Amino acid sequence: MKKNILFIVLLIFGSINLFAQEDKTYKSLEEALKTPDQVFSLDIRNKDLIKLPADIKKFKNLKYLSISNTQITELPKEIGLLSNLVDLDLRMNQIKSLPKTIGKLKNLRIIKLTNSKITGFPESFGDLTSLEYLQITITDLAGLPKSIGKLKKLKSINISTSKLTGLPESIGDLTNLEELMLGGNKITVLPKSVGNLANLKILFLTDNELTVLPSSVGNLKKLKELNINNNQFKNLPETIGKLSSLRDLSAGGNALILLPEQLTDLNQLTKLDLGANQLKTLPTLFGNLSNLYDLNLYGNQLQALPESFGNLTNLQDLTLSGNKLGSLPESFGNLTHLRTLYLDKNQLKMLPESFGNLNSLGSVRLSKNQLQALPESIGNLTKLGGLYLSENQLTKLPESIGKLKNLSNVELSENLLKREEMQRLLTILPECNWSFE
Description:
Layout: H1 2-23, E1 25-26, H2 29-32, E2 41-43, E3 64-66, E4 87-89, E5 110-112, E6 133-135, E7 156-158, E8 179-181, E9 202-204, E10 225-227, E11 248-250, E12 271-273, E13 294-296, E14 317-319, E15 340-342, E16 363-365, E17 386-388, E18 409-411, H3 419-428, E19 433-435
Parallel strand pairs: 1-2, 2-3, 3-4, 4-5, 5-6, 6-7, 7-8, 8-9, 9-10, 10-11, 11-12, 12-13, 13-14, 14-15, 15-16, 16-17, 17-18, 18-19
């Protein structure tokens, strides 16, 4: 009986000691090599290392290895003997390639290569069958091996600010992928197989050289965020309307001339950025995007808004600066949740009377238009704090402006106001900061 109790006690203390060792992170390679079997975590970042010794193979139980911010230019082939390695941090190094033996790390789940000199991967990279997270940003990476399609457990790929020009067709085999971040590369074409990424939730393609989005992208039923800013798109595929889970679409900084009507089927969309394109019109049923709360149409060539625009009743932030709008539809007054409104740099000569219904507005920018008067209803905007009206043709403001007790800043420079009108405004709202010059 006593022997059994002693055995149990020893077993418990042995387990505690093991857990204690697993929690310890060794900071010195020399210290770790004294008891290699007890090393589970090794962090030798920020050292003056220029070479990783072959003795690295002695760490049979190693799960975490960081050699970030060192002068190492290559990994020894013995790295492949670390069969229990789970997390490999190779950030901020001079490493240009990985040894073929990297593919033997069957338990590796995370690899980070941010800010390194890596240019490519061996085909054996596809043998990392447990890999879930791949982070390779700010590198010289120019391509991916076809074998990447074998990494069936991959959930996240981040290859940003590198030199990728394309993706292998096998990328479509990564059916568990949830995030694909490829911003800041030189990608010109996407393979059709990208439409096979059935579990993809986030797709970032900003700052590339893409001209066409494959129609197969419409198959990405779980996609929630799509960012294609700053490419060379002239149009979007009609199938984009099939992205039934899409909440955030960013397509600014392209050369879009026309939007497909099917875009208005994205009834889950809450944020839409179409700024800095060449749009002259919006789809007739644009108002069907009734869940939008943030809409950016800055820097296009819009001359009018469809009457259905007033159906965007959940809008809170709206940017229409830098277009050619000559008027607003009467339905514009239905946007009663609007908090910030940018309408500067247009050709507006008047505002609809319904403008006064925008009673949630906190700030409105109307500078650089052709406004000759404001509607009397503007006095209903009791939450308004900032009103920017410089470079218009205003000779006076309506009497109702005096009701805006929360108004703290008004810009009226380069208008046609006479001194008497300026004095009147200073009198009715003396605590407001009026700028006439």
